[in-house]
Design brief:
Oligomer: single chain
Structural class: alpha+beta
Strand order of the largest sheet: 5-4-3-8-7-6
Largest sheet: 6 strands, antiparallel
Helix content: 40-55%
Keywords: DNA-binding, Transcription, Transcription regulation
Protein name: DNA-binding transcriptional regulator, IclR family
Distance between the termini: 38 Å
Number of helices: 10
CATH superfamily of the largest domain: GAF domain
Organism: Prauserella marina
CATH topology of the largest domain: Beta-Lactamase
GO molecular function: DNA binding; DNA-binding transcription factor activity
Number of strands: 8
Pfam families: HTH_IclR, IclR_C
Order of helices and strands: HHHEEHHEEEHHHHEEEH
């Protein structure tokens, strides 16, 4: 089952809401270029006629919009208005922009800010540095399961052991992401991440495209967001990784303290690797 497929049990209403949510999440990941109905059916695992009916109903309410010329679907204007309202409670990207900017300008690489949402990471911010060769694995709106890409690895690594075990027991990451994402190999990378304090993705999603990430913790000390740097392999050699890791950890630690302070709560307790 892919990242957006929805297996909802219980009342018919819950089943419908789960399907609508799966379609909207899949659409959000493709919103920049838009998506065909068949794309979204494949992403969600829903039948194409069902997907089309859901999209048509969402369009009637303004939650989806269709380009009549290309047939591609996009998120609708009503979601923008709802998002603006919800942002007053949940949006933290304005706090992260300065950190993302500093990482991009200091390192020359592409810098990102992602949020943990359920069992996925969602990329919220991107800024490119001045190095001319870039990786495009991550982009605003991109979603990946926990354990995939460096942000997904670091946000998994600093969860409780029982939560990690339960997730890896039920998640099937190898069918889409390959053998390097078996439970055993992810557990080994989790151990290295905990030891270093930051995660390293050595080109496991796209060959030659490397990433590193550090976790940002909420007021309860739980991993909730991540800062990431990505680039080509030659820019992430072992000799440079400690330097990049230290920059990521410095910014992640500062954001952890700042986000806790802005909520009027005590700063989260330091975690391994956070100076």
């Amino acid at each position: 089952m892919n990242a957006y497929a929805c297996a909802v049990t219980g009342s018919p209403h819950a089943h419908l809401v789960g399907r609508v949510g799966a379609v909207l999440r899949a659409l959000s990941a493709r919103n920049e270029a838009g998506a065909l109905t068949s794309d979204l059916a494949r992403d969600t695992g829903l039948p194409r006629p069902t997907t089309h009916r859901l999209l048509s109903s969402l369009a009637e309410e303004g939650f989806a919009d269709r380009d009549r010329r290309t047939g591609r679907w996009f998120l609708g204007p009503e979601l923008y208005l709802l998002g603006r309202t919800a942002g007053t409670r949940y949006d933290v990207t304005h706090h992260a922009r300065a950190s993302v900017h500093r990482l991009a300008t200091t390192t020359g690489e592409s810098a990102f800010f992602s949020a943990l949402r359920g069992e996925e990471t969602v990329c919220l911010l991107r800024e490119d540095g001045d190095f001319p060769i870039r990786s495009f694995v991550l982009y605003e709106g991109a979603r990946f399961p926990l354990g995939v890409v460096s942000a997904g690895l670091v946000l998994l690594a600093f969860q409780e052991d029982a939560a990690i075990d339960a997730y890896l027991d039920r998640a099937d990451l190898t069918s889409r992401w390959g053998k390097p994402h078996s439970a055993g190999e992810i557990r080994a990378r989790v151990a290295r991440t905990r030891n270093d304090g930051y995660a390293v993705n050595p080109g496991l999603v796209v060959e030659g495209s490397w990433g590193m990430a550090a976790a940002i913790f909420d007021a309860d000390g739980k991993p909730a967001w991540a800062l990431t740097l990505t680039g080509i392999e030659t820019r992430f050699k072992p000799a440079r990784q400690p330097e990049l890791g230290a920059l990521l950890l410095h910014e992640a630690h500062a954001l952890t303290r700042h986000l806790s302070a802005t909520k009027g709560e005590r700063p989260a307790r330091p975690r391994p690797g956070i100076d």
